[in-house]
């Protein structure tokens, strides 16, 4: 007997990818339900070779649904996730609404799978921020080997991280440049076509942005609270795929060759690091892929036990939909969720 799964936010970038990945990975679902706002009732979305009609999240009854994959933004999650959890359905939420709640586990299955047992307090599990997910997949095996003291990360984040509207804005502005139409900016604070913007999410009192704060808070929660992390988060005119320049300082000695070997064996990681033209991965090539790609691994001679590396992954997959479905698989494989509805 299989599970009944709901995807809330099914018309969005991440929701559509969730439906693709559920089908691709053969998730043991007897029934998959697509949910969004009342605006989208009846809209059709694809689930493998099937077409699903979207229903209204607001009026949906979760009492026989086992897992809800939620990607409809923070405010929607704040409002609905507790109610869904109370109906006995486990919510795996892609927004930042629950990530810092001590009673909600924040999980990357390659990094901290055992923290999942905490989910039963609220029946909510949080999926990390897209930049943090790929970062911790690459840091975890190195931390296990040489103990990370400090990380400096600069992100190059694609517009799909800002939702479908972000992708439309890059497309429309790029087109407008070529046909000499006026450039309109709605989603981003400045023009994104042929530009980069050092601002993602809101500003905080200390001058950092919320996106930058998320990377440090979430790395500490999942990997090790003692690691010092500082971040600069930048939006770039790329449709899909986040890149990161990562500088790491370790407690113990580790060479670039050792790091390369460790990462080659590490779950979720793929090392592409040839010292030649094109011997590294760019975001364009990682779109549609599951792995976290690591390139340009080299020693940083300006500090003791320092390394630099380049980390790239598909933000809609490992940074969002894939990680959420890996969490659902973890729940199923560990027997933490059982199908509630008897198959018809
Ligand atoms: P809808 O298309 O009906 O607005 P993205 O991040 O790519 O923009 O996608 C956001 C997703 O969240 C969409 O599926 C959107 O549905 C959904 N969503 C937004 N607001 C609500 C709401 N109030 N109730 C349910 N779903 C919502």
Describe it for me?
The protein is of the alpha/beta class and 344 residues long. The protein has helices at residues 13-24, 74-86, 130-146, 164-179, 210-222, 256-265, 283-286, 317-333, and strands at residues 3-8, 29-36, 44-47, 50-53, 55-56, 67-70, 90-93, 124-126, 148-157, 228-235, 242-250, 269-271, 292-299, 306-313. Strand 1, helix 1 (13-24) and strand 2 (29-36) form a beta-alpha-beta unit. The mean pLDDT is 97. The structure holds adenosine-2'-5'-diphosphate (A2P).
Structural topology:
Elements: E1 3-8, H1 13-24, E2 29-36, E3 44-47, E4 50-53, E5 55-56, E6 67-70, H2 74-86, E7 90-93, E8 124-126, H3 130-146, E9 148-157, H4 164-179, H5 210-222, E10 228-235, E11 242-250, H6 256-265, E12 269-271, H7 283-286, E13 292-299, E14 306-313, H8 317-333
Parallel strand pairs: 1-2, 1-6, 2-5, 6-7, 7-8, 9-10, 12-13
Antiparallel strand pairs: 3-4, 9-11, 11-14, 13-14
Helix pairs in contact: 1-8, 3-5, 3-8
């Amino acid at each position: 007997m299989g599970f009944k799964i709901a995807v809330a936010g099914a018309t969005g970038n991440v929701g559509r990818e969730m439906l693709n990945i559920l089908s691709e990975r053969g998730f043991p679902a007897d029934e998959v339900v697509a949910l969004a706002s009342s605006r989208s009732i009846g809209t059709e979305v694809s689930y493998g070779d099937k077409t699903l009609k979207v229903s209204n999240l607001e009026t949906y009854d979760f009492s026989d649904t086992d897992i809800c994959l939620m990607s409809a933004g923070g405010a929607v999650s704040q409002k609905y996730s507790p109610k869904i959890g109370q109906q006995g359905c486990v919510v795996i939420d892609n927004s930042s609404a629950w990530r810092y709640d001590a009673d909600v586990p924040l999980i990357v299955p390659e990094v901290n799978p055992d923290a999942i047992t905490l989910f039963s307090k609220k029946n909510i599990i949080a999926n990390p921020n897209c930049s943090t997910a790929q970062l911790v997949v690459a840091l975890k095996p190195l931390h296990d080997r040489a103990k990370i003291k400090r990380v400096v990360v600069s992100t190059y984040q694609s517009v799909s991280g800002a939702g479908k509207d972000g992708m439309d804005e890059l497309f429309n502005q790029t087109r407008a440049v070529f046909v000499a139409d006026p450039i309109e900016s709605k989603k981003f604070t400045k023009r994104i076509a042929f530009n980069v913007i050092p601002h993602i999410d809101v500003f905080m009192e200390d001058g950092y942005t919320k996106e930058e704060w998320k990377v440090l808070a979430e790395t500490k929660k999942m990997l090790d609270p003692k690691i010092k992390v500082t971040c600069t988060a930048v939006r770039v005119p790329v449709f899909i795929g986040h890149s990161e320049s990562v500088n790491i300082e370790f407690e113990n000695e580790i060479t670039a060759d050792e790091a390369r070997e460790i990462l080659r064996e590490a779950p979720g990681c793929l090392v592409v690091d040839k010292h030649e033209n094109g011997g590294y991965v760019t975001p364009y090539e990682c779109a549609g892929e599951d792995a976290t790609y690591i390139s340009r691994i080299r020693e940083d001679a300006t500090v003791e036990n320092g390394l630099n590396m380049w980390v790239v992954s598909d933000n809609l997959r490992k940074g969002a939909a894939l990680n959420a479905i890996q969490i659902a698989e973890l729940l199923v494989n560990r027997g933490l969720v059982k199908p509630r509805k008897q198959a018809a």
